[in-house]
Amino acid sequence: MIADALDGEIDIILVKSISRFARNVVDAQRYVHELKAHEVEVRFERESISSFDPSSDMIFNLHAAAAQEESRSISENTKWSYRRNAERGIRHLGNNRVLGYDEVHGDLKPNSDAWIVKMIFNDYAQGRSIKQILSRLNDTGAQRLRSAKTFSVDTILRILENEIYVGDRLIQKQAPVNFLTKRPDPTAAFEQYYISDDHKGIIDRDAWDRVQERREKERELRSIGVYRRSNTHFLHGVVFCAKCGAPYRRRTLLDRDGVPYKTWSCSECRKGKNGNGCKNHGIKEQKLLQEIFKQLDWEWLDAEHINADKILRVVKRVEVANKGVCITMS
C-alpha cells in the first residue's frame, strides 16, 4: 500500500487508529512524513488526526508513543501468560497440528496417521537413507499434514528430531517474539521446560534413542565435510531469507538470449498453495558476491578471483532482503 501511494496511485489512506499503522513511533513518523512529502494524506479515524493538519504533529507523536507502549504492555502480558503455563506444563497445539496426533481435551492422542511416523522412525533406525524413506512413503501414498504434496527431506528430518513422537514435550522451543519486529528475538533470555512421558508416544524409547544416535553421528560427519558435495557452492547454508528465515538456494536460469546464469532465491518461494510462497526477491549470484565484498570493504575484481575460505572465515550469515543484503560477521 505504501509503495502504491508513493507511486501516485493513492491520494488518501484511511486508518482505524495509529496503533494499526506502524509498530513503533519511529516507523509511524517516517511513513507519515514520507507520504506527506508525496502529497498523500493519512487520516486516523480514532484520533481524528490528518497528516495534512500542521497542528497535528505533536498530537500524532503522543498518540504514537502511547500506541507503542500499549503494544509493549500487551506483549509482556502475553509472554507472562506463556511462561506461567510453561512452568505448569501446559502447552496447547493451537493451529500448529502435529502429524500423527490429535489434541483431545488438552491431551495428545495418536490418530490414523501414526503409521507414517512409525514407518519413518523404524526405517531410519534400520539404516535406510532419507531418500529411500521418501521413496517408500511415496509408494504408499502417504501425505503431509494439511497438504496433498509428497514429503520432503526437511519434513522427514523435522519429524525425526521432534521429541513429541516419543511421548515427551519441550515447551518454549523458540525465543519470545519481539513486540516491535513481530519476529523471534534471538537475544532474549527465556527458559525451556522438558517434560518426559507427557503423553502416549507413537514410537518407543529404544527406537528414539537409536535414531538420535544416528542423527548425532551424521552431524559429526557433516561438520568435518564428509557429507558436503565437492560441487556445492561455498555460500550454501550461509545465505538466508530476511523475510521468512528460510535458506536461499542456488539455481540456474536463462537470460533473454538463452545464456545461463546463476541466481539465489528463497527456498520457500515456490511453496504453498499454487506456488504462493515467500515473496522475497531473488538475487543474481554476481550481485550477491559484489554486495558481500562491498560490505566487507574488499576490492572486487571478478567472480574468478574469490577466496571462498577467506570469506567464510569472516562471514557467518548473509540475509537477503528486497532492499539489499545484510551480513553477520563471525
Helicity, in percent? 25-40%
Number of helices: 9
CATH superfamily of the largest domain: Putative Large Serine Recombinase, Chain B, Domain 2
The CATH C-level name of the largest domain is: Alpha Beta
Quickly give the CATH architecture of the largest domain: Alpha-Beta Complex
Number of strands: 13
Question: What class, by secondary structure content?
Answer: alpha+beta
The CATH topology name of the largest domain reads: Hect, E3 ligase catalytic domain fold
End-to-end distance: 37 Å
N to C succession of SSEs: HEHEEHEEHHHEEHEEEEHHEE
Largest sheet: 3 strands, mixed
Strand content: 15-25%
Form type: globular
Structural domain tally: 3
How many whole angstroms does the radius of gyration measure? Answer: 25 Å
Largest sheet, spatial ordering of strands: 1-2-3
Kindly state the mean pLDDT as a whole number?
Answer: 80
Low-confidence stretches: none
Salient structural properties:
single chain; 330 residues; alpha+beta; Rossmann fold; Hect, E3 ligase catalytic domain fold; 3 domains; three-stranded mixed β-sheet; 9 helices; 13 strands; globular
